[in-house]
Specification:
- This protein has helices at 6-22, 27-46, 49-66, 77-95, 120-134, 138-149, 154-161, 165-187.
- It is 70% helix and 0% strand.
- Helix 2 packs across helix 4 (77-95), helix 5 crosses helix 8 (165-187) and helix 6 (138-149) crosses helix 8.
């Protein structure tokens, strides 16, 4: 048996959404479905376990606060959650003054030489990419976050930011072009 069609998935999402607006306890189901993925997304972006946990909690608190006033817009709930997470992360970095963690206890453990999946060159290139990404506009960062860290498809990104799937694809392409340009400048 294959993967459910996107129309079926969207119908199920709408039913879940309608239940959410009537019964806030449905947030528990949504938490079970999406919390780990949100946590991974936020941890990759901020590199700090406690901050990622706090931001996941913030996302679900926002959902709880909005649950009775949300309106169905034909977009998966996951898109809304990742948009809120991306915005919360942007706010976090803004409040922190875009500083990286100074204290080793706050920073995510950097892989060691005995971890064959990582090496120094990969870590350095990753740092360059993260630094280049931070120089992009907030919208470009959000679009790239949603596409590559959250793994959303253009249709979901479009729904999350209020544009068509085709326009979302163009925005991703343009944001990547700007990131490439900044990454090349950073390595020169």
């Amino acid at each position: 048996m294959g993967k459910p069609s996107s129309a079926l998935m969207l119908k199920q999402e709408k039913q879940l959404f309608e239940r959410l607006t009537q019964d806030p306890s449905v947030i528990g189901e949504l938490y079970d479905l999406h919390a780990n993925e949100l946590y991974g997304f936020l941890l990759k972006r901020c590199g700090h376990k406690e901050t990622a946990e706090d931001l996941v909690a913030h996302v679900f608190m926002r959902l709880l606060e909005s649950s009775t006033t949300l309106k169905w817009q034909g977009v998966r709930i996951k898109s809304w959650l990742f948009t809120v997470a991306s915005n919360a992360l942007t706010d976090h970095f803004r409040k922190a003054g875009n500083r990286l963690a100074d204290d080793e206890s706050e920073a995510e453990q950097i892989p060691t030489d005995d971890d064959p999946a990582w090496n120094t060159e990969v870590v350095i290139e990753g740092e360059k990419l993260v630094n280049a990404m931070r120089t992009l506009s907030e919208r470009d960062q959000q679009i790239l976050d949603l596409r590559f860290f959250a793994g959303l498809e253009p249709m979901e990104i479009g729904g999350a930011i209020g544009v068509s799937a085709n326009h979302a694809s163009v925005l991703v392409y343009r944001a990547l072009a700007r990131l490439r340009k900044k990454a090349v400048v950073a390595t020169a």
